[in-house]
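hiii, so i know i said id send this last week but things got crazy w the move. better late than never?? heres the sequnce for the chain we talked about at the cafe, plus the structure i predicted for it. fair warning i was half asleep when i ran it
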Amino acid sequence: MKTIRHSGVLLGLIIIALSASGFISEIQKTVTVATNQVTNIKATSASCTITVTGSPVSETGVCCWTKTNPTVNQKKFTLPSGSRNNTPVFMTGLSSDTKYYVRAFVKSGTEIIYGNEVTFTTAAASAKANSNYGQKQEEKPTSTKK
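okay and structure toks below
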């Protein structure tokens, strides 16, 4: 009986030591998130896809700001519940001709996990105002004299 009791105490001490060292919390981190390329960049909007692995995840999206390391406390855009990887996250209400830093994020339990950071610059406002922006110009036929 004493051997079993001492083994239980020893096991308890090992678990406490591993928890204090952070080893067990590292094992529990099974959720990762990656920020993919920003596309469809306009003067006041853009989109970005993210890749999430693991679970549990209660919220996914991106956060962006004009300074490095944006957090969800600044500007955040979320995906609808149940969205799959590579579903575009639409970022709207951005300022034109501005450099933004973007990071994907997931909420897992009470923890927020951030992905890598990417940057992009919104288009100039004049590009949006130009009605021919992005359109191919038709060539006018030249007249010939006979």
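btw The beta strands are 32-39, 46-53, 59-65, 75-78, 89-91, 99-108, 111-121. thought thatd interest u
miss u guys!!
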